[in-house]
Specification:
about 350 residues; seven-stranded mixed sheet
């Protein structure tokens, strides 16, 4: 499966869209918003550019996209006023895969501009969409001062090739990610693919950032060296179980599940530290780990936590699952998934780990 062509968040503003089902990501990102604001303020006050380039990699669509960018602009505006310095010209680069709903972003721009104007600053703001994989060059040389990426870098450029033998047959049967029943080569293949992707990401960004430019990278991870935990890995384990239930009910064939794997990897802090050190283009200013608690999504919608997680995962994975299995299984699959999440949470918490890196270009 060609990830770059197929993978995208569910567009539009319908009940299953990413725009309607990304509050978990928004509230988790808000937990670390102070890091983003401190970093972008520092890069502005240090360089005081007349024109500042800011990129959001894996921007997706919906409310989160422009609200995050608006907060960055407002942070810089506040800083410029404090030091009595003219507001810079803003070049805002929004990047995601070609299937992303960029039209939804562009339709929201008039309101975005209006809100900025009401604040009384940021008169010169230019927004552009740049479709394509961030595993490689996306922007011109040295055009960026700040790069932001939230909940995107745990997605790999492709499913690791090591999950299939020389005859092309799957070796991680009945699983869609690393599991207790997976052969050791499975976790090794995922780790190797992350190494290739992340090193390419760092190398590409180092060419696009000005000297001293910074990145804030937020991604899902794991708390230690073991791949099997009751965190992000366990959520995929429950989705595998949901597929197995559909197999037992005759809704999908076992072979279909055997040949489906997610292009996801949750790195550890140590892996990230090693990758940054080995690639050599950046200095790590900060690396923090957060446990996202169950109540992070709130209860304003009066739906269960499991249902909320299921709707979030569906908005993210629907394009890939529909392409492989067909759209007909989506309702029953995520109904089972939400139920399993609630059942497991009643036994013991599942704590999703979020890692936050701040990197400075050398």
């Amino acid at each position: 499966m060609d990830v770059e062509k197929v993978f995208h968040m569910t567009g539009g503003f319908g009940e299953t869209s990413y725009a309607k089902n990304s509050s978990l990501q928004k509230k988790a990102s808000d937990m670390v918003k102070h890091i983003t604001q401190e970093t972008i303020q520092e890069i502005y006050l240090t360089t005081k550019p007349k024109s500042i380039g800011i990129a959001d990699l894996g921007c997706s669509s919906g409310e989160n996209t422009l609200s995050t960018i608006k907060e960055m602009v407002e942070t810089i505006e506040l800083s410029s006023h404090k030091i009595a310095y003219p507001s810079p010209e803003y070049h805002l680069y929004l990047n995601d895969l070609p299937g992303n709903d960029f039209n939804a972003i562009f339709k929201a721009l008039p309101e975005f501009y209006r809100e900025l104007k009401e604040k009384g600053g940021a008169k010169c703001v230019y927004v552009g969409g740049y479709p394509g994989s961030f595993y490689g060059r996306v922007f011109p040389d040295k055009c960026l001062h700040f790069i932001y990426s939230s909940y995107s870098l745990h997605w790999l450029s492709k499913v690791p090739e090591g999950l299939y033998d020389k005859k092309g047959k799957p070796i991680n049967k009945a699983n869609i990610y690393i599991s207790e029943s997976s052969p050791p080569i499975v976790s090794q293949s995922y780790s190797a693919q992350f190494h290739d992707d992340f090193s390419l990401f760092l190398r590409s960004r180092s060419e696009e950032l000005v000297a001293g430019g910074k990145m804030v990278l937020i991604l899902l991870g794991r708390s230690g060296p073991l791949h099997i935990d009751r965190g992000n890995q366990f959520f995929w384990e429950l989705l595998s179980r949901s597929f197995s239930i559909l197999i037992s009910q005759g809704e999908i064939e076992e072979e279909k599940l055997d040949s489906y794997d997610v292009h996801f990897y949750a790195p550890s802090k140590e892996e990230l530290e090693n990758e940054v050190k080995e690639e050599g283009s950046f200095e790590m200013d900060r690396l923090e780990m957060y446990e996202i608690e169950k109540d992070i999504g709130g209860d304003e919608s009066h739906i269960s936590y499991g249902t909320s997680v299921a709707m979030t995962v569906r908005a993210i994975q629907e394009s890939m699952i529909s392409h492989h299995f067909g759209e007909g299984i989506l309702e029953s699959l995520f109904e089972q998934y939400g139920r399993l999440v609630d059942e497991e949470m009643a036994i013991k918490d599942i704590k999703a780990i979020t890692l936050v890196l701040v990197l400075r270009k050398l």
